[in-house]
Fold these 2 entries.
Entry 1:
Amino acid sequence: MSIYSEKVMDHFANPRNMGELEDPKGVGTVGNAKCGDIMRIYLDIDEAGVIRDVKFKTFGCGAAIATSSMATELVKGKTIQEAMQVTNRAVMEALDGLPPVKVHCSLLAEEAIHAALWDYAQKNNLVIAGLKEPRKDIGS
Amino acid sequence: MIYLDNAATTQMAPEVLQAMLPFFSDVYGNASAVYGLGARARQAVFEARKQVGALIGAAPEEIYFTSGGTEADNWAIKAVAETFADRGKHIITSKIEHPAVLQTCEWLERRGYEITYLDVDKDGLVHVEDVESALRSDTILISIMFANNEIGTIEPIAEIGSLARRRHVLFHTDAVQAFGQVPIDVEDMQIDLLSASAHKVNGPKGVGCLYIRSGVKIHPFLHGGPQERSRRAGTENVAGIAGFGAAARRAARILAEKQKREMSLRDDLIRRLESEVPWCRLNGHRSRRLPGNVNFSFSFVEGEALLIRLDMAGICASSGSACTSGSLDPSHVLLAIGLSHELAHGSLRLTLSEANTKAELDIVVETVKKAVELLRQMSPLYEDFMKNQSLEENI
């Protein structure tokens, strides 16, 4: 569909890091079936606080799948603090933009990364600067 | 390309284009003019009026050309409301109408009218008993669509028409999806007002009509000229009207054959998708259904993503997903038949024409099957569902 950039179409058709992790250090699920988008991010984080691996699963439109894919690429290999800098704006820019009605998809991608980091922080009794508890609105 | 979005619009038939061409070039006269050039345009408009009327059992003078189905719906509802305001301000419609009807009713609601939006059953059928119990002494109009644009369910129009006549209430039907697809007879079905559109039956875009039963006196929609018996002013869209006439003539000629062919393709497609794609649901009534309509919900996947996958394979389809409409809510029709938000977001509408082939549908089934599988592999809802299933198996 021509409403999307070539980058969005590429990430939709060939999503990067799609799947699950066996023993993730952090998992976050955001969104709800009511508005049609649910994103789940799995993180593997080493002792040095570097994101070694990341996977996603998304129920949603083309933009939702593409933003999830791009968000995983942007945080992979980064430190937690670097991953915290991956904003929805950064995801959108990396995808050469999104149609206005799809901007919420990029917000959801940012929230999904944050939710997975929150889960990691909870499990390890850590405080990550700037990280807030994710909204819980899963369900339909 | 495989085109399966005929409920959105259709390809113009070559004979329709041929019928229109003279009015874009040589025969440019104003249909109101006295000289020969005008008379030829006037004659074309008259012929078209006969052809369009003939398809629904109406007299030519009961057909009023409009800019399309939306205008016809607006005119019918607003004009009845305004003309009969002193008799009452109550209108009965359904929850699954096209926005051209629903939003017109909402507009009237803000101006002091009362609207009853009837529920439909799980197949999308309006129940005549519900219409009857909604009737009041101040009811001035019943507006129920002939067939639904999303799920294809054909409403009990003759029964509603008979009820409306018995109770002396005007009956309007938005027949945009049914016109030229199934037999319609405004006499047998006791329809007072009917909206139709040319581009859904291989005619041009930008032209449609409102049938107004002779004797039904509703106010004009556009003021400023004697056209359309002074009820819809403005120089006639002669080329468009001629095209509409040609499309109606063609539709009448091929109706029985087209219906038979589409129903066979439709039932085959439904049967194959049901047997080959797990966790799917047919939306709409199984038999009281437009010949070309197929509408499924696939659990755990979202409709727009599915549409893009189909588009990548050259297949044009549509969905009731919110993401295809620009709003956050999925189709009001799918919610009205009781679907969860998830299933409503995961809907796929495939609307056939008589030109589709079995070979095309083979490709469609394979593509849908693969796309649904792939999107399920990406779906956290599917992941959770499968995990719960294996948990249950272990217990």
Entry 2:
Amino acid sequence: MELRHNNHIQEDPWASLRAFTTARIALGRTGAAIPLKEVLAFRLAHAHARDAVYSHLDTNGLQEKLQAIFAGPVLQLHSSVADRYEYLQRPDKGRRLDTESSGRLSALKDEYKQQDIAIILADGLSATALNIHAIPLLELLLPMLKAAGRSVAPLCLAEQGRVAIGDEIGALLQAKCTLVLIGERPGLSSADSMGAYLTYSPRPGNTDETRNCISNIREEGLDYSHAAGKISYLVSEAFRLCLSGVDLKDNYGLFLEK
Amino acid sequence: MSYQHTIQHRTYRFDNLRMLLARATPFRSGDALAGLAADSYEERVAAQLALADVPLKIFLEETVIPYEKDEVTRLILDTHNKTAFAPISHFTVGELRDWLLSDAADTAALQALSPGLTPEMVAAVSKLMRNQDLISVADKCEVVTRFRNTIGLKGHLSVRLQPNHNTDDPRGIAASIIDGLLYGSGDAVIGINPATDSPQAVVTLLQMLDNLRLQFDIPTQSCVLCHVTTAMQIMHHAPVDLVFQSIAGTEQANRSFGIDLALLKEAHEGALSLRRGTVGQNVMYFETGQGSALSANAHSGIDQQTCEVRAYAVARQFAPLLVNTVVGFIGPEYLFDGKQIIRAALEDHCCGKLLGLPMGVDICYTNHAEADQDDMDNLLTLLGVAGCNFIMGVPGADDIMLNYQSTSFHDALYVRKVLGLHAAPEFEQWLQQQGIMDHTGAILPVSNAHRLLGYSATANR
């Protein structure tokens, strides 16, 4: 950001320490206040995070792109949340499908049920993250799952969804496990971070310790090829051990976790 | 026992004290999520009218969780001081509110009363109070604690320097500490939230903190906010000043944190035995926050604010140096927006102070809450007026490890300046000796040659 330098700013003579941390140090000051340039940089980062929270899943665009890389059906589903305002206050409703969505899943032909893995794309707290990262990740992951001989249930787009909405979807599809790709809570430094949650034997009422989480999927964080490799490894391990969660240890390579 | 109040022709009934307290609570999203909030504005006021008439003695007879089922309830009743309670034992909750605001309730009277109050009495009266009342009453309280300096004196506001780093890199953490010290922060504690709870990582950070403190003779204390069991494991071969733990207001919620009262007692005794304090022996640092019991599915039908105040009963048993309510960290499903966060912070601060705790507040929010820096500025100013013991100091208000926004070193300078507040006396003297602050409390420019910048160069080599 270019703001004209002015003489009111008391600069801090330790800017070199910024090499060791991304924390907002050595900001300088005017009186006791943070210089305007830094105030506006902060406000811009917060604006990106806020816009991400209120972003929408590009359901039609995603469906079109998914159908280009996946032969089976792609379904558009919705949680029982009415709007984002309710989504933020009622996590319980974001974990359940609305009746139309659950009806459509129940009515699916048997040939689509009892597959190895159901993949669910949910907006979570950043639809932006899904709009950007879901397709590039799945372009790598779907062939890896196919090569491993895993059958994939119809892909599901879930609007206003939380992680646990995958449990109801997985149970209705009678899938052996679910992979929920979901937008993570935006931070000031990353408004588009995607998470992936693997749950073996999905059913409503599952809690967090039954899942494995791969976090911070984005180009500056865990990149697509590493994320796909890691997910593929965890899926294989989950099927080998018939479980997921705290008892499924992630020994895949050496990654920098957050 | 059931309670009721009639407004015109409509009678509102409340099955028990627990339900009455919940329905009387100013609206917040967490109580709605738990299905405990009043159904209408009128019902809420009806509950407040009914609550105002409840005699305080009832609170010693009717528990919100049974005595047999919950060790926090047992602690509250077993430690209740009847002598301290005697002067107000004939009051109703409403009379307590009016008395607290009267001139008779001065600092000494409130300090004497504190052991006679139970958390539920304090929660109840706070539900009848406006924000202004919460500030007025808190301002009359004074809770002073000591370890290597003196925190909580009237006219003083301390800062926890929070130099977190996403990979616990000691150089990155040191850079944020130097930044904070040169901005006059760090008198409450220099406290790191570690990215991992591994004992070896915690020991490394504690040694770094202690070396820094000793090298510059800083009159403050350090803490790595690991689980209490980790601190107990390492305290005999690492420089543990303060023992940290998150606590909650029900036995079940505490169990979800991996603790109980016996464990805290053992940790407290262990920390005392280290004898590291110089001017005092307040060795515990607790964090709390409305919604934590509900989040652990362990609220037992109690509203989140009453649960929070019950956590203060746990805290006061162990004479802490610092109690910090991390008010906006939990998210909008518990406290939706700036209005709810501000109200909750003022409640927590006032209720904690009435119970005799050295309350600080992490004035903070997450990016999915309806809040921003303006809300935090409002809350910071209100808490400064209310006499809050300490706040957080995070570089630029942006915690890069925990991914939320708190208050900055600059924010602390702002509130000290506009309200004429001082750092802890021993620390303020040190800041002046180091050429960081002048005798009026104004922060001074430092040169490249400042010795603290020399430290960072050494540490980074």
